[in-house]
């Protein structure tokens, strides 16, 4: 049976086995997917151990995405620009690294009928979460993507990697100078119950607000956006399932259907 893993530390909370086993059942794929808790200094060893038993691939979560980038022999363009790898594939003694986070985000936005082509997008944050989604967002042909960050120089450095004149950088306080169609929260603020320091003037009746974080209830950012009149608010659970679907399609060459798995996962999540 083909073997797959998700490597992380911590990893007990991972939803990946549920998602991938659901995909496998729906697409009639025979595989085994398990969580693997990896010691902080044991990532390379864990990968080599999986390869030694004939493993076909692995997902990688915190804090090992940088190390996955380093051990990959071949990188996709989106992984190179993201500076992180969340999907490894093993073929013929070669380790391939990819990053499916951005495509997972894009597919979830499109599934929620969010128009990205010819749109103005505000991306909050310039860290790893933001880096991973810029290239797939640009591929949707927006008018522009403004990256707002507390430290503007960090956003500017991120933009320099992409060499695309549709990208702009600013501080959180200057973001209100433009009107946006989509606002994506790629900061970690929601994890601590905080809000990105942006003006409520950015929220209007036709803006869609998306948070990469998810929870049993609306995140602080989405609750704030809803109270300020956003037309639609969407959390990141669909991004989680979406990025997994892209990984699954890379490994198995079949495209799994996301909607039913997302509904099952959200129902299970709410029962906990």
Short description:
The protein has 272 residues and is of the alpha/beta class. The chain contains 11 helices and 12 strands.
Report what the structure shows.
- It is a single chain.
- The protein has 272 residues and is α/β, with parallel strands linked by helices.
- The protein has 2 domains: 2-99 and 238-271, Rossmann fold; 102-235, 3-Layer(aba) Sandwich (Rossmann fold), CATH 3.40.50.
- It is built from 11 helices and 12 strands.
- It has helices at residues 16-27, 43-52, 65-71, 77-82, 101-111, 128-131, 134-138, 152-162, 220-227, 237-252, 259-271, and strands at residues 2-8, 31-37, 57-60, 74-75, 87-91, 94-98, 120-124, 144-148, 167-170, 182-185, 208-211, 232-234.
- The strands form 2 sheets. It has a 6-stranded mixed beta sheet with strand order 2-1-3-5-6-4, sandwiched between helices.
- α8 (152-162) links the parallel β8 and β9 (167-170).
- The longest helix has 16 residues, at 237-252.
- The two termini are 31 Å apart.
- The model has no long low-confidence stretch (mean pLDDT 94).
CATH level 1 class label of the largest domain:
Alpha Beta
Number of strands: 12
β-sheet strand percentage? 15-25%
Question: Pairing-aware structural class of the strands and helices?
Answer: alpha/beta
Distance between the termini: 31 Å
Approximate shape: globular
CATH topology of the largest domain: Rossmann fold
What's the architecture of the largest domain, going by CATH? 3-Layer(aba) Sandwich
| Arithmetic mean of pLDDT | 94
Low-confidence stretches: none
Order of helical and strand elements: EHEHEHEHEEHEHHEHEEEHEHH
Q: CATH homologous superfamily of the largest domain - what is it?
A: NAD(P)-binding Rossmann-like Domain
Helix residue percentage: 25-40%
Number of structural units classed as domains: 2
Radius of gyration: 18 Å
Largest sheet: 6 strands, mixed
